[in-house]
Amino acid sequence: MTAKRIGLATAAATTGIMLLAGAAEVRADGDTATLNVQATVQESCGVNGSSLDFGTYISGQTDAAEADATLSFSSCPAGQLTFEFDGGQAGDTAARAMSNGSGELSYQLYRDAARAQVWGAGSDAARLVVLVPGSGTVPVYGRIPGGQAAAAGTYADTIAITMSF
User: Fold this and answer.
1) What is the rounded distance in angstroms from the CA atom of residue 156 to the CA atom of residue 98?
2) For every residue of 132-160, which 3-state class applies, written as one string?
3) What is the model's pLDDT at position 40?
4) Could you give the CA distance from residue 123 to residue 149 in angstroms, rounded to a whole number?
5) What is the pLDDT of residues 14-29, one digit of tens each?
6) N or C end of the chain: which has fewer CB within 10 A?
7) In angstroms, rounded to a whole number, what is the distance separating the alpha carbons of residues 129 and 157?
8) How confident is the model at residue 98 (pLDDT cuts 50, 70, 90)?
9) Are 150 and 59 in contact (CB under 8 A)?
10) E-assigned strands of 11-64?
């Protein structure tokens, strides 16, 4: 009797091991698949400046001289674009001035055609909401106030433009 019990216990243990081994084999069987991974890289959003040319200003003229220019942006995502202008060589967005090396000629840049909103940085930056990704333009309006006595010559300034998105 005891032998039978040992025999049955041995048989049961052996079968259990075989079942476990069989279960391990079943778990090892399976299927494979792939995961495709990709990314599309777009050119970075960029801004291009242009020139704003007031033409000829006659020293002391009473009328203001006005001119317009256009900035262009390309490859930009949908969303808000912010365009900030620095103060040029004067270092002051509220008091811009062109220079000819020895003299200055005051002028200002504006975000609106009425020339009421000075273009600067922070709260004075121009903001544009782009509804679809792509390219576009932003107008720039300039004015030289009348009544300035300036020496003859060519006056110029350079404005740094920062665009963020």
Assistant:
1) 5
2) CCEEEEEEEEEEECCCCCCCCCCCECCCC
3) 76
4) 32
5) 445 444 444 545 556 8
6) N
7) 29
8) very high
9) yes
10) 46-48
**CA 14 – CA 21 distance, rounded (Å):** 10
Give which of 149, 139, 165, 150 is closest to 52, Cα–Cα. 139
| Cβ neighbours, 10 Å, residue 71 | 19
Query: DSSP states of 56-125 as a string?
Result: ---TT-SSPEEEEEEEEEEEEPSEEEEEEE--GGGT-TTS-EEE-SS-EEE-EEESSTTS-SB--SGGGS
- C-alpha pair distances (Å), 63 with each of 59, 124, 146: 11, 26, 5
Q: Where are the domains of the chain?
A: 46-164
- The Cα angle at residue 156 between residues 155 and 157, in degrees rounded to 5: 145
Q: Provide the CA 113 distance to its chain's centre, in angstroms.
A: 25
Binned at pLDDT 50, 70 and 90, residue 161 comes out as: very high
Say which residue the tokens 């203001």 belong to.
64
Say if pTM beats, i.e. exceeds, 0.85: no
Q: Which residues are CB-neighbours of 29 under 8 A, at least 6 positions away?
A: none
What is the rounded distance in angstroms from the CA atom of residue 95 to the CA atom of residue 117? Answer: 13
